Amino acid sequence: MEATLDRPDFFVGGDWRTPAGDEVTEILEAATGKPLGTAALAASTDVDAGVAAAHDALRGPWGRTTGAERAEVIRRFGAALKARGRETAQLVSRENGMPRAMSVGANGFAPAIMFDYYAGLAAGLDADDVRHGPLARTRVRREPAGVVAAITPWNYPQALAAMKLAPALAAGCTVVLKPSPETALDAYAFADAAAEAGLPPGVLNVLPGGREAGSYLVEHPGVDKVAFTGSTAAGRAIGEVCGRLLRPVTLELGGKSAALVAEDADLDVFLAALPEVSLANNGQTCHASTRILAPRSRYAEIVDAVTDTVKSLRVGDPLERTTQIGPLVSAAQRERVLAHVDAGRRSGARLTAGGSIPADRPEGWFVEPTVFADVENTSPIAREEIFGPVLVVTPYSDEDEAVALANDSEYGLGGTVWTADQERGEALAARIETGTVGVNHYALDVLGPFGGVKASGLGRELGPEGLAPYVALKSVYLPPEAR
Ligand code: NAD
């Protein structure tokens, strides 16, 4: 099986391209640390070829398609992704440690849902939109934004790529997808499905590569729009370049979101949701509610309950159906997370669960799900994105302080409010400075715009709003109609 996981070529211009260089990445299975496969990494010449192919496709018949024509192709593409969904989901779990039960939804089937949704919106772009104003008639045309550079991280590699590909193709753009080296293998599901669905050559090009290839792509003169998901540090660097170039960019970045547990919260509801809301994908989730804000009146009860819940989570092989916490993506990520845990220990916070590598999981990149209580909101473990299974609990005295603590963060991506009073919960949610927030629930949906404020990013993906960045508006002024 291992041999079939090697991907030595890139997908460029509808064909398999032999890499210009010889840089290859070896992907190790997250649960065992053993080799899973290899993938070629793009050099600048490969990126040039990808952008040129995307450019040619845009100038070719694809650039003249109607939205309705594209909708058909996008639906076929989505169906081809869906057909290999279980296989892709399993591959991602092996690459990045995501429990398979979650990966089947997030990586296996979510992309097809997004492809179907944006296929549905594509035909709407064809509508003749003529506006009769006081000075002229204006025909508003919705044209493709052009060649899109889509750069994605390793944590939800299929869903995050689909959030860009589906609206980009619906709008008539062409795409160069640069996935992370850590999840280079699963990215080929897009190439395989595109070939099978008959996507015209060059409309999608897949070139795994590292940071250098990414930054070369962002600056490339042939790129018209950048869509990035990843760390805030990389997002800032990309934003600076795009600012200089005046190149449109969407940035989906890091987070450090709060779970505000109100005094009247039903703890059973909160605890049942906790693994998914705060520790999804082993904590490797940008919108996770990892800062738990607990009222002083119920503080000990909440710390004990969160600790017991986290200690009860089943840590293990991500491919096992019952596993709730799998390994982290890499040895380097495990080191980073353990360094945060050490910083937490030194900060004087009280470790109530986890804190180490599980004794029965020395292989692979496991970290015990961990809880720190009595954490000051000024402490680095309350401020920095850890991106592992580490929660902090901070007490508050009243609602205003809870809201202030939730908002006292560089980030603003997710967040949740837990209360027996749904209406009061929505009022609290309205006071939280964030791009998304859940009340007694948190789940992304294809219809809901997703994205951050502050250092969590710029722009939105999903929903009709997620299509707009890929559409270039052109106003064609026409003479007023004869009266
Ligand atoms: P990362 O920023 O290191 O890398 C992300 C991608 O960008 C990779 O493909 C990488 O090769 C590329 N890259 C890195 N530096 C670049 C540069 N200067 N120019 C161009 N490309 C560059 O992030 P990661 O470690 O892969 O992913 C984890 C981060 O992603 C976390 O901070 C997480 O919060 C964030 N994330 C955000 C969202 C969101 O929607 N807001 C979703 C998932 C992950």
From TrEMBL:
Keywords annotated in UniProt: Oxidoreductase
Sections of the chain in a coiled coil: none
Aldehyde dehydrogenase domain residues: 16-476
UniProt keyword annotation of Oxidoreductase present: yes
Pfam families per the UniProt record, alphabetical: Aldedh (PF00171)
Family: Belongs to the aldehyde dehydrogenase family.
PANTHER family: ALDEHYDE DEHYDROGENASE, ALDEHYDE DEHYDROGENASE-RELATED
Protein name: Aldehyde dehydrogenase
